[in-house]
Amino acid sequence: MITLIRHTYLENSVCADHMAKETVEIEEDFREIYSPPFTILMLLRHDLLGYC
């Protein structure tokens, strides 16, 4: 499965905002993510249902 991530302005994306905050806490220079974190899945679901 291939996942495509497109650019969106941070102010318009709860998921992008969450990932940016997570990145600040990571001390590594690079991290490869093979599946979305549970918190992102929940945010995507809320977005799909129109809660965000």
Care to give the gist of this entry?
With 52 residues, the chain is mostly helical.
Beta fraction = under 5%
Task: List unreliable stretches of 5+ residues.
Answer: none
Q: Cα-atom Rg, whole angstroms? A: 12 Å
The overall strand count is 0
Query: How many domains comprise the coordinates?
Result: 1
Order of helices and strands: HH
The oligomeric state of the chains shown is single chain
- Average pLDDT confidence is 76
- Which of globular, elongated, flat, extended, rod-shaped describes the shape? globular
Largest sheet: number of strands, sense, barrel closure: none
Q: Please state the structural category.
A: mainly alpha
Percentage of residues in helical conformation = 40-55%
CA-CA gap between termini? 26 Å
Number of contiguous helices: 2
What does it look like?
The protein has 52 residues and is mainly α. It has one domain (10-49). 46% of the residues lie in helices and 0% in strands. The chain is built from two helices and no strands. It is globular.
Short key terms for the protein model shown above:
2 helices, mainly alpha, 52 residues
Topology:
Elements: H1 14-25, H2 38-49
